[in-house]
Amino acid sequence: MSHPAHMSRRQALIAGAGMLWSLAATRSRAATRSRASLSALVTEAVAPGIHIRRGLDEDASAANGDAIANIGFIVGRNAVAVFDPGGSLDDGQRLRARIREVTQLPIRFVVLSHVHPDHIFGAGAFEQDRPEFIGHARLPNALAQRGEYYQRGLESVLGKGKAGPVVVPTRLIVDRDQLDLGDRLLLLTAHPVAHSDCDLSVFDPSSATLLAADLLFVERVPSLDGRLKGWQSALTSLKTVAASRAVPGHGPVRVNWPSGARDLDRYLDVLLRETRAAVKRGMEIGDAVASVGSSERGKWKLFDDYQGHNVTQAFKEVEWE
Predict the structure, then answer these.
(1) φ, ψ at 81 (rounded to 5°)
(2) Which one, of 120, 122, 111, 110, lies nearest residue 146 by Cα?
(3) CA-to-CA distance for 132 and 12, rounded, in angstroms?
(4) pTM
(5) How far apart are CA 302 and CA 288, in angstroms?
(6) Which residues make Cβ contacts (< 8 Å) with residue 24, sequence separation at least 6?
């Protein structure tokens, strides 16, 4: 049985590595199936006025259009804020169409939670609305280093022009800021290096909802592209937020907070503790990749796709402690 070519987010996390995605001989037939299978975007109201689409627990492929991250929007009295516009131009267009099914209020803000393409390459679908594109202060540099690389990689999977443009934020968050939707004030936090080097989270006090993006993975294995200890610190900080629920970047569209972070806490702790032990024993990085965190296998979707990369990142971080 043939499968459409797909791009691993693990590959996408290593910018500039020059890795190529192979295309299956059945690419045109896969693209046809893709167009037929991508139906209207469906969202769930996780709290009043907060609508979230659950991403697929897959890597990007022509069949899924890179609709693999949790994305959505928040409706206030006067305006709409998008929280991550999707993984491709088509994904963003379907999200915009869904917004217009719910409300005709202006789309004034598009929050780009971090640099990874499954979250932000749908931004081009919203340029017609002339919103403020909101990003971490380090996001422009991350896009300058990786944006075209990600774009080429996605187009090799989805087809030319399907990835969407690289949209640079027009408003940068250095520490904390807020977005006013009318009767709804969203609180933004720019985090130190954690899951990535440009993570933003959003808290909606009116519904006690934390939109954590990829600072929170549930069910799908985490992917480390920043600093392991920084990620643990960011989670500790987020647990002080007075939220009763959180929206992960991958997994269910909502979990109780902070209990919803337990599995991620455990995983990051195992990764750090066992990597430190491997370094202390003088283990080579290849041997560490084969052994560290093996107890977590079976507890996460796509574990074997990302565990090796995570151990490699952790090893580089702790070997000179």
Answers:
(1) -115, 130
(2) 120
(3) 26
(4) 0.88
(5) 19
(6) 2, 3, 4, 5, 30
pLDDT band (50, 70, 90) for residue 4: very low
118-137: pLDDT as tens digits: 999 999 999 999 999 999 99
Distances in whole angstroms, Cα of residue 264 to Cα of each of 16, 93, 209: 28, 32, 19
Contacts of 252 (CB under 8 A, 6+ apart): 54, 218, 219
Give yes or no for residue 39 having a pLDDT over 80: no
The residues near 242 (Cβ < 8 Å, ≥ 6 apart) are 205, 208
- Beta bridge partners, 204, equal 209
pLDDT over threshold 80, residue 27:
no
Torsion sign over Cα 97, 103, 106, 107: negative
> Nearest Cα to 23, choosing from 154, 215, 116?
154
Strands 200-204 and 185-190 come out as antiparallel
In DSSP terms, 266 is beta-bridged to: none
Confidence band, pLDDT 50/70/90 cuts, at residue 301: very high
